[in-house]
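Hello again, I could really use a second opinion on something today. I owe you a coffee for this, so here goes:
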Amino acid sequence: MSDLRIYVENKGERADAYSITDALVRAALPQPYRGAAINVCYSLQPDLESLGRATHFVGYGFDPQRIQRHARQVRVVHSLSAGVEGYLPLNWMPQGAVLTNSSGAQSGKGGAYGAMAILMLNERIPQHVASQRNAAWNRTPASAVDGKTVLVYGFGELGAAVARRIRPFGLRIVGVRHSGASHDDADEIIQPRQFRERLPEADFLVLSCPLTPETRGLIGTKELALLPEGAGLLNIARGPVVDTQALISALASGHLGGAVLDVFDVEPLPRDSALWSAPNLVITPHTSCDDARGDLAQCLAIFGHNVALEAQGLPMRNVVDPRLGY
């Protein structure tokens, strides 16, 4: 593709550990396309002239209005994150252009994190951490994990990866997906309309869905009360999927046995957030899917594959459907 002109936008004004480089982009492109013109810039130091000539845009946390104003020749905008709620609605997209995301690129790492979190919840690790802080020797045994039920809301690449990792421990996996179609990594698949009626059987609730109008505030006081006493919750979706105050109350009352959160309404989590002192809660700073060995390379691989598919006139991967929000 002799007309391939790629504009890469990093956040900020200088390189850091999350920076996309020319070498990373070229390595992700199939061999016939590695001679493309690539311009690597930073959001605080944009090259608007180059952006105006670009056919493809790659970035994360970018300003869609800048693309609308300047990138009129862009055919593909690729987000290096899976979540695209910050870019909706897509009324800023140049005519005929598509938005693609990096969903699935980090599912291997996220799946292992999810399995770890479920096992931690089962072994009461959040409670033991609290006891350790208080120098308290509380010998409360946990029951074996096999035979318990994991309800996974959002059975896409990430949710299925969690199921794959945890299934060898003998858990029953119930997945929630819009299509209701069966999946090899689940014992049963249900649709979102059936979700609440199945909460009473969930020993563990895993949230791995995109943030959409349908999932915002999905888990509140009513849903948490439907879970069995002592159940565990893992959120690796987006913070606003869960009502924070309802979660804190369920933990404080003891109805919820423990929770692991990797995502929050505001990130970084403010120092004055009540979550920091909530009982039986483990917090990680939105790193569940980040792979220090090659996170960006995996996300860019989707972009590179799509470059080849587009050149051949074939449907691209991970094209965001504005009606669904993912």
Observations:
- The longest strand covers residues 5-10.
- The CA atoms of residues 266 and 273 lie 10 Å apart.
- The mean pLDDT is 95.
- The two ends are 28 Å apart (CA to CA).
